[in-house]
Amino acid sequence: MTTSAPPLTPPVVVSVGALSPADVAAVARRDARVELSDASLAAMAESRAVIEALAEDPQPHYGVSTGFGALASKRIPPEQRAQLQASLIRSHAASNGPEVEREVVRALMLLRISTLATGRTGVRPIVAQTYVDVLNAGITPIIGEYGSLGCSGDLAPLSHCALALLGEGTVRDRHGVAMPAGDALAAAGISPILLREKEGLALVNGTDGMLGMLLLALDDLRTLVTTADVAAALSIEALMGNDAVFQRDLQELRPHPGQKASAANMLSALAGSPLIAATKTTGFTRVQDAYSLRCAPQVHGAVRDTMDHAALVASRELASAVDNPVVTLDGRVESNGNFHGAPVAYVLDFLAIATADLASISERRTDRMLDPARSHGLNPFLADDPGVDSGHMIAQYTQAGIVSELKRLAVPASVDSIPSSAMQEDHVSMGWAAARKLRRAVDGATRVVAVEVLTACRAIDMRAPLSAGPVGAAVLAALRSRVEGPGPDRFLAPEIEAAVQLVSAGDVARVASAAAPAPLA
Questions:
Q1: Is the Cβ–Cβ distance between 503 and 224 less than 8 Å?
Q2: Active centre residues (catalytic)
Q3: d(CA 321, CA 299)
Q4: Domains of the chain
Q5: Using CB atoms within 10 A as the burial measure, which of 233, 242, 351, 419 is most buried?
Q6: Which residues of the chain have pLDDT under 70?
Q7: How far is CA 415 from CA 339, 346, 412, 431, in A?
């Protein structure tokens, strides 16, 4: 869970189609405040008038005067409609399992507010404003990991958030203390809402949870793939490899944009390296390095291109009004299938595959540095006294265990479907499950890349008196501020964790970019 920082200024203004990925990260991870635009308030008031008119219509209208899902054929009399909406929220708040991370819940809440703000859901402005007030107060509903099938919306997670607006259920306050929602709202000076026609349905019918996790994963992966480029360059220095394969004209022969960006990063990270220069002046130069070194831009670049595709899907979702039924621009209320999570689920699965491969090639580079048959003069396992010391032998085991797990997490969730709601909802996306496993995959890949950075820096130190170039030296200095250099075996777990923190916080990418001839992409 990301540590919160003071709110950003100015606040994120939620307007129709205006929310950006950066806004989501700012609210979810840094507690930026949220405001509703005047245009959104006006749009909500206009569409609410349509719902109010339909509430008086003797003809049944789904979500307004009928039951839900498989019970949509039952007409609900006016005196029971408030109960209908509250009952929907209470019964659908049925999640179970480990608690979902605070940043995920905050992203989900913001994205539901964004859909409400389109004016296409028919809720009163006070409903959206109350949601904003709860989010700004730092109140976070407690949601279990299981409960969404990624269709008809992330029903259970969204229902827990809606339940908090009613002053029911359990939440955490800004300080992380668990308490009844009613107490948290009272402490923040927020009045619980009383739902009216259509409003309960509008609060739960969206793909906000899986979209929020997609956006957060992309935020993490942008830093991680650049860090992986740096890690690969460090490994090439440590193995005294060949940087000629990363030249721009060679990359342009296969014009994938991601490949070009990663190759440029690696070439920049290797600029001015005495270790690389030494391979060109010692007589024999290896013409071709192993694939894990030579083909790193092709693999890392494919990850980048996959991210670009996922970001395109996310941008379309951010511009969407996902609800059923919706109030159209010309004032009709229509049922639709826009709540189906397939578009998001597919790219979540695609990213899990790419993330697993990013980690896989990183582990292969690490293993090469530890093997005396392939490391070109380094001590076995980078041990100080091989035999007495084991060096980084088991650090690679840790990587291997994670990579194996990532391969299992790469199995698509979106190809599965279990019918629900008495076969009314007979095909579902499982996008929430795809998002949950992607979060685990990104965390695992971060740890794998961190071990490569740790190992490569140790190997570079063991090449003395030869040294790394400016970028490698900057990364090594950052690591050495937390982890000692080579020597007899020490307790290794804290050193791995220190490297993980440097990678996950973006420090490796940041110091590398600052030391490079040009900022890294």
A1: yes
A2: 62
A3: 35
A4: 12-206 (1.10.275.10), 214-515 (1.20.200.10)
A5: 233
A6: 1-9, 16-17, 68-72, 282-286
A7: 17, 9, 6, 10
